[in-house]
What we know:
This protein is mainly α. The protein has 2 domains: 25-54; 60-172, no CATH class. It is built from 7 helices and no strands. The longest helix is centred in the first third of the chain and has 31 residues, at 24-54. The N and C termini lie far apart (110 Å).
Amino acid sequence: MKINETTGLYENYGIWHIPFWQTEMFALGVKIACAFVLCVLCFVAVWLYLRHKKRKKLSPTEQIVADLCALKTEYKVQAACGKEFYSSLSDIIKRYFFYCRGYDVLGKTDAELIKYLIESQVDQKIVDDIEYILHGSEIIKFANAQAMQERIVADYDKICLLIKNKQKPPAEKG
Length: 174
């Protein structure tokens, strides 16, 4: 065996080479691939941001009207979905009074909502209509299918009329 004069070690192999992952060409290829992936990620991030920015944001009143329309399109305005219908309707009513009228009613039960509206001196007709609608969930438990369907449709129409007629702030009426 021969001793290498520069390293002072025995040479075991007559030929040796550098592995491909340690070459400069491989390192350059990795850098180019990373730069390409980074550019694609930046492009996707900008695209998502612009898409989010263009999305139309609905006002609270428009969102409430859209939710009412969704009740109809999701076929919840029928006797078979009575519980879901009145739960959704109760939520819509509370959001309406919170966002459009400025009353703090989001965390309240239906009975607390009625009491709060009475104490806030809201128009008695509106309070009576809301009370009638919110008590509908209790009534439909004991009604037959035809009466239940009629009550659900009547309550839906009544709340649509209330919200669509009261979109203007009270100060603008007049």
